[in-house]
Amino acid sequence: MGGETVAAVANLALDIAVIACSRFDATGAPMDFDPEKVAIKRAAMAAARRTVLICHAEKFGRSALVRVAPPQALWTLLCDETPPENLRQALVDAGVVLRVSD
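RESULT FIELD:
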């Protein structure tokens, strides 16, 4: 982690960035606890044509400190359960494709 990792990721040309999060805010934005991890995720998203966010349903009720990106920056959310209705609607309104998989 750190500046060298962020710089290395920023130099990549990615088709898809696959990231995870610790929770979502009320707008559907993914969030995390560690600013250094967030910086790497942002660099990967900026280097990619599309971003897939993966998460376990337990992330729907947790709290975190740092917003990773607005929900509009996501292409797809892949999760094991459908998000609660308010989060589901915020993501759909932002154009995020929802995929639920066991």
